[in-house]
Design goal:
By secondary structure, the protein is α+β, with helices and mostly antiparallel strands. The protein has three helices and six strands, in the order αβββααβββ. The chain has helices at residues 2-24, 88-105, 110-128; strands spanning 29-34, 37-43, 47-84, 130-162, 165-171, 178-184. Strands 1, 2, 3, 4, 5 and 6 form a six-stranded antiparallel β-sheet that branches. A hairpin with a 2-residue loop joins β4 and β5. α2 packs antiparallel against α3 (110-128).
Length: 188
Amino acid sequence: MKSHLFIRSILALTMSMFIAGCAFADHDYRRHYTNGNYTNSAYDSYGYRDYGRVVSARPIYRQVAIEVPRESCRIQTVAREHRNGDSFGGTVVGGLIGAAIGHELGNGRGSATAVGGLIGASIGNDAGSKRTVRYRDQEVCRTQYRTEYEQRIIGYDVRYSYQGRIYQTRTDRHPGDRVAISVAVRSR
């Protein structure tokens, strides 16, 4: 029994909201007499919205710079160095020789010995490995940009007729055959 009462209450509330919505749906619209014709217009607190007939719509252009990419490619011969062989022996021998020379020149100081060992290891590594240089053709591409200019439409200067008078406005898009206007209502 309680469920039927709940369902009836929800149904009654829904119907009353629907009826109230229908009653208030047209509250901002008024019939407006213009040039012998009745039209419906939406009112707000300052006036109403209406439509004017478009007489002309002239596009407004602006010159815009566009960066256009162009890729150019060419074949270039590139040298590649390869190391062959084990350079471990050369590194060890060079490090020992370098450390001995550093020790003698540095009068037994540890820092001179270490520096000599590092330099000798580097030289021994380079000497112990066999280097071969190979050449190969490789495609190398580069993108360059050039600036082009084009005309773009940024809006329209619109002339429209409303109640026998010609007005002018500017819009972002082409208005079509009519343009929406706000009509302010003032008492005299």
